Amino acid sequence: MLICAAAWGERVVFCDGTEEEGRLFYRKGKLYLDTGGRVLELDKHRIASITDRGDTWNEYRRRRDAADENSADDMLELARWCAEHFLMPEAMACYRKVLKVDPDNYEARTALGYVEDNGRWVRWPEAEYRWREARLRCGDVKGYTELALWCLNKGVTDGLKECSFYLLRLDPFHESALKWARRFLERDRFTLDRPPLERAAVLKVGTEPLCAGTLFAVLFGGTDGKGLAGCEAFAPVSGTVDYVQLPWEDLPPGSKRKAGRENFVILRSGSYRVALYGLSKGSCPLEAGRPVKAGEPVGKVGTPAGGNGTLELRVLNADSFSVPVRFSRCLAGRGKAAPKPAENHVPAAGETVAAARGAP
To answer: Whole-angstrom Cα distance, residue 329 to residue 191?
Structure first.
């Protein structure tokens, strides 16, 4: 009976695809989901959709029909109830009705993003952003895209970051969100202990199809136009083995295979994941869950998608967004000159990088 009373059947689908069912509510500015057996604290910007809110909607309609729209007290009470049960667009509408009756109502004004300035109610861009964002429902791609553009025009940096990241959680291929999020992700540069190969050419940074997971991926190829097939790949950072998937046989050059079916190994370092794509089947000596040290062999470059052998490096943050990388120590150079020692080096297309002497 306790579970039935708490779980109203509201199904919450998160951006990572997982689902929970229960009753949503706000308390002291934080969002929670009561599943009947536990109470989870949630982040609105990790929710893709909310469905089956029948009991909540029915109760809202009952309260709305019983309230007097011309009564500030009734509208305030209904607005508070809506906010408590995560019906924020309805709560905002109720607060606007309060202002029609009581234009100086402090609670309604502050809820709608106003601040008092020399006896006048004004709305600063940052506060207006919070009001505009509260009116949007989870999963509203069009609404958040329009809000991100508004933030861009008004110079609301935190809002632009919040909106662009949320859009990428909903759609990793969102072109505009990729453009807006790039400058924020560039600040999240991750330092690796060494390059993943003894010596290789950086073919490009950012691989196709461009999405949140490949925005700053680094593609390595052989020097002097030679492929990397058969070359040993090494762990570029210490951590643990998160995942190993090497099911595909090597193919002759020019063979075609659907994108996303590359052989790869993923290492975890703190909240980041370091992925190496393009390995040969059966070449990884490691198993998931095993500790790994920087410089330890993790497999050999193969041709699981055809071609003459390339290795792709991606570093993903907790949101599975690709972030830029740099090598704490390496050898780097351009042209025919021998690569020179470099520290905290950011790889760029057209250069050669190699493991520094004495590097792990």
So the answer is: 10
Six-digit token string for 135: 């009116």
The C-alpha torsion from 312 through 335 and 356 to 207, rounded to 10°, is -10
- pTM of the predicted model as reported, rounded to 2 decimal places: 0.88
Number of CB atoms found within 10 A of residue 317's CB: 16
Position 48, amino acid: A
* 338 secondary structure, DSSP code: P
- In the three-class reduction of DSSP (H, G, I as helix; E, B as strand; rest coil), residue 298 is classed as strand
Per-residue model confidence as pLDDT tens digits over 168-220? 999 999 999 999 999 999 998 999 999 999 999 999 999 888 999 999 999 99
For 217-254, the DSSP string reads -EEEE-GGG---TT-EEE-SS-EEEEEEE--PPP--TT
Domains of the chain plus CATH, in order, are 140-187 (no CATH), 191-354 (2.70.70.10)
Q: Two tokens at 224?
A: 């002097």
CA gap 91, 136 in Å, rounded: 12
